[in-house]
Fold these 2 entries.
Entry 1:
Amino acid sequence: MIEINRLTYTYPHTDRPALADVSLHIDAGQTVLLTGRSGSGKSTLLGAVNGLIPHYYGGRIAGRVVVGGMDTRDHKAHDLAALVGTAFQEPASRFITRQVADELAFGLEAAGLGGAEIARRVRETVERLHLGPLQDRPLDQLSGGEQQRVAAAAALARQPRVLVLDEPTSQLDAESAQGVLDWLRDLCRADGLTTLISEHRLGRLLPEVDRVAALSERGRLEAWGAPAEVLPRLPYGGPLIEAARALGVPAGLSDVALRELRERLLAWRLPPGGAAAGEVRLAARGLGFAFGKGFELHPVDLDLRQGEALAVLGGNGSGKTTLLRCLMGLLAHRGEVRLEGERIEGQPVAVRARHLTYVPQWPSAFLFADTVRDELWTTLRYRGLHSQAHAPASVEAMLRVFRLGEVAGRYPRDLSAGERQRTALAAVMIAGPTCVLLDEPTLGMDSASQAQLARRIRRWKRSGLSVMVATHDVEFAAAVSDRALVLERGRVAAVGDTAQVLFDRPELRTALQRLSGRERPACVSDLVTDTGGEDADD
Amino acid sequence: MSGARTQHPVAWMAWAASAAAVVLLVRNPWYLLLIAAAAAAVRWRATGERPTPGTVRAFAGLMVFPTLLNFLFSRAGETVLLELPVRYIGGPYTLEALLFGATAGLQLACLLMLMMTFSLAVSPTDILRRIPSGLGPAGITASIAMNFAPQARRSFEAVREAQQVRGHTARGFRDLQSIVTPLVILSLESAMTVGEGLATRGWGSSVLSSRRRGLAWAGVGLFAAGALAWALAPQRAWLAAGMAAAGASLLLITLTRGGTRSRYRPDVWRPSDTLMAAAALGVLALMAVLILLAPALLAYEPYPRAAWPGFSWPLALGACLLALPAVLFGND
């Protein structure tokens, strides 16, 4: 169905190819998982299949891609649309109409079908994909998981033979993600669709796929084959694979291996000690916020101590972002906020920013200088710290700490998700805050970058920094935080020790907790202690 | 919002186009004020929102800027308000220049008000669906352009916020440069994203047969030949105009009739749409006829000596007809 033959592609205005000499042969009806670190060219390869590459973006291409008999050099994306349905990573930014049913109909209208035929197909898609309750809702009022389903349904309404999904679950909480994946699996099986899915998080998808293609950081095909063959060869994997590696259990994850892993987990004992957290640094009492008639954050009390990390958990739309934005002063809220004992409700954002800082989801609006190095200088200028004698030295040191030395002269918006996140962090950390608020920092990051960020946050804690992380990723929360606060529809549903809070709610348990049936160890970092210097990162 | 969408998009297009044309034809401030008020009333009925201080400031700025500009740089007019004993910049500053500038400002504000109301009632998708199917790639470009402005507003807020979080205190005009570049980049990026979605959903695939495409190109050729003929032999203008008109009609016919797309939920054209479009076009026709027959009724020329602009009740009532959509919402 998909034949990729020695494909090499370079984006316009760049020298390094995004894909180098990639060859793949995918049979009709196969489900293929495309994996690799961020920036390895996964989205590019998907673009080569749906025809956006080379016609929409331009650039240089060698080799050929043939999809269902159509050569992408001769057929543009809009011609391939009859054959290939695409659902992108951030569906909300690509919706064309305002309402679910209209969105499903859009591709059919573009295809020039008759009115009766369009109505029939929309009805059929709604029924078959169980979208009945959604069909008359406005798109901007759907949750992330619902939007992802609508995007996939819109791609499927034209009855394509190939479905291309770019990280369909990266923005979803565990429950919605599982829902979307189950739904997709049933769909592919029933229709014999050829499916190409890119995803960082392997754990969830492995049981569903026929083949795995792994791309290296240079856009080369590193591995290709059945999941059982490819996986042990990859330097990353789900939490179970990492735990197996940490404990020296064979990483194939056969039933035998799983049993052995489980026994090793049960034999594990919590090491004694554990650092006591310091003074309360950031405190909120009765912090609440109402947004129109739709959403409300009910009064929240919280304390964040010195050297402590607090995870704010909750599904899409539970109010995590709102809570962080209220603390930063970006939303006018009710209640009381204290920083180092001093009331700060009345202070403007720029004043709070002297001690407190915030990095939003998708930090793309956050970066606006010409180079990565300039981003750091921009913050110093805003804060009036740029003329200090040690400023140049601290900028260079900060670039080293965040491993940005190599890309210091590059344009921040061209970087991979992980590099962009590191640039945003470096740009706020250069001003020396004592308290950091991070909103979904792992979004769009591959597992190696996530592990790195987790190590970095643990190091910050040891140096006395206070960190608050809003995330839907329970594995990440377990890896970095001491305490967790769970929000449900704008209310605090639970607060306490992270491992305990996660374990008490079956839907939030980590992979290790599910396997062992015990509260601890909750994550791989419980099993191994961080090693290495304070500054160096891997 | 939903109220505004109950009228047919084409009726809205007729309304906006007529009103904008009238604003460009008329310079009499009384009628301009009436049209601005009509547009504001329609917008208010549609959203129920009161104008925010920010909007009021933006409109005030739009009117003050051309007023000052003309006042400072125009030397015409007889009523001298101020004259300074300085060469070049000393004046004379006249009342007429001030009034002329203010009228121009009012015209601009009026156009902006109309566009704001129109964009509320009609989405880019409504327009996109009406672009002839033969013009696929042009449609994608148009949608990118139409999505630019709303994206720019969102990007502006995001960038402002990021700057504050990084310790930046807003300082008015000096900030402008620091915000313009990221704004343009962000908005372009998101507009391109929408374009990506359109292409992969099959928008822009031509449903024209190759014969029709050939006819369309022939139309383009004929039109170009007409233009060329006009340039080379202006004395035979009627021949050139005929060729251009024939080419344009050929192009229009092949593109619009070649492959009309069906719609899932076709917009229904109701009597109230006819009323709205007819009223708007009627106002335009009336003003156009008056421009030809009695230009003094609509024009306002403060030079050489300022006077009160003329006012006629029938014309004022005509301009008020543009507020008709505000009344039509009540009928649903």
Entry 2:
Amino acid sequence: MLWTKKDLLGLEYLSKEEIELILETAESFKEVTTREIKKVPALRGKTVVNLFYEPSTRTRVSFEVAAKRLSADVINIAVETSSVRKGETLIDTGKNIQALKADILVVRHNCSGAPALLARSLAINVVNAGDGWHEHPTQALLDIFTLKEKLGRIEGLRVVIVGDIAHSRVCRSNIWGLSKLGAKVTVCAPEMLIPPGIGEMGAAVTCDIDEALKDADAVNVLRMQFERDEPTAFPEQLEYFKNYGITEERLKRVKRNIIVMHPGPINRGVEIASVVADGQNSVILEQVTNGIAVRMAVLFLVAQANEAKG
Amino acid sequence: MKLLIKGGRVIDPANNIDEVLDILAEDGNITRLAKDIDVPGEQTIEAAGKIVMPALVDMHVHLREPGREDKETIKSGTLAALKGGVASVLVMPNTEPAMDSAENIRMLTGLIKNSSYANVYICGAITKGRYGKELTGIAKLKNEGVVAISDDGAAVDNEELLLKALLEAKEHRLPAICHCEDRKLSNKGVMNSGLISTRLGLRGISRESEYKRVERDVSLAERISSPIHITHLSCKESVEIIARAKKKAVKVTCDSAPHYFSLSEEALLDYDTNMKMNPPLRTKEDVTAIKQALKDGTIDAIASDHAPQTINEKEIEFERAEFGVIGLETLLSVSITELVETGILSFSELIKRAALNPAKILKINKGTLSIGADADIAIIDPYKQWTVRKEEIVSRSKNSSFLGRQLKGVVEYTIVNGKIAYPF
């Protein structure tokens, strides 16, 4: 199968086959990252620009490492140091980056749809590194990659996503990706954090975490994104931990080898107990490692789309 | 000055006319309607195969002047109106400054006198600065010629204040136009709340934010038996509330805009800011309810809510983009395409909702072809198709929801006060 999409905007817009292609490509790149010389020349001579309108360490660094391992040149633009502060529009910023002959634009933005706006205004490849509450496709891909690596398959798995569903782009991307690959997704949160219609996206919805975890093969734990809304949009922290926090006690009552994931940064004692985050079920740091392989695959494939078109 | 329109299908719901007739206009008024009028030597329009109808009256328009002439001017906006077969518009008071004082309205009246190409009526503000705190003094505004009052774009949150305003409006026989939105409930939302807003990761505007306010305003009108007009209805519940009120003979009228009966929230799936307006596009079910309410008469009028916005305010991140879409040039064609072609309304019923009823609500002498009426006439080719193209938009702003859409019904002439005003 040949990759033909210029941009990666979200998993909603990908077919099952396209997601599988990314995962397979990531597998071969993961092997590269275990070598002593962790670099391949796949994107030599290409320039990747990381345009980040939101603070991010993990995702930005992961894209940077991924691009460098593909031998691309990498430029990081953070909002604080750019002319965006001087009132430049998003499209103008994108066109300037294009005029610098960048090849791939990786964008993180606090507004949902910002990468889509760039993608339709620019000829260069646009990769969504997280937009508002909308999607964070590479995060979901690395979650899925990790799950597949651990459990050998995605089809038929029961995956619970617990936490701040309302404001979570990670959740939305995971729902699309996992359901396309045949997993059964359940989202779990207090009612105030369940957005309208989420059930129709292909996830079961519950407010009872113990019920949700009963037969689960994996649980993806989301943090409260207090920065995205008014304080009244969130439950009280201690109360939340009591009712929804992923604790040792809770895990005693579920599948012994349940996979515990978290997109980070983790808030110990808010959504997840320290012992669980550091415990044997946790794959949180492996997710970070896999993130590089997945992002290498994404950068490699979108760059290929241009060649496919000539 | 005489103008003869020959052989068109004349439709005038005010007089129950739908037949092939000639119309003679003299000195700005309609003087004869008959078969085979023969007045030699006068300017004649051959209208065989066309519909000859009262020009439209659009009771919800933003022309942005004074203050935001970069978006629209009285000149550009009235020319856009003419292209759409609209000869009369009611301009909303949310200009800069707002139309909240005799002085400001005098200024606007002067601007209109100098630069308008169609009939422009002014809607005065209910409260000073449209802040919802202090009434403007409706008697003063009426003396300056406003034909309605509204704080459009904002709702008067304070019930007591609105009650007072309604009483004053009643005393001065001015329609009070209510934009129904409880901003505590719409909560900085940017589109309809539901599956689509969740998919797009955008903050939703609940239906409650509209219909709870419709409910409140209608009950205030009922309490003091004062007339009220609710503008730009977008959802099913609002329609149901109005239908119930009308059954109880509450003096309520209402309008909806073409985008609410032709587009649903799915149109936002690629973050098109030309689909962003307030109230937002709702669900398919709401579109059906609005259509049904137009058919059964629950919704009295069709108005464009023409809201020009510049590229700078639209070609940006969705949640930062301004609300509003232009609509004067597509009002009639979208209505024909979505309502007449689909058999929901007859041409006569459409003209009633887009010309006669708005004129009646505003108590202005428009919307008819009666003998003696102002000769404001549209001549249209009802079956001709056209495609909405950015380059052909007359309005200074291009933020149409219908770009690229093929529509039925082309305006061939718009006649204002007996003179051919369009084609320009």
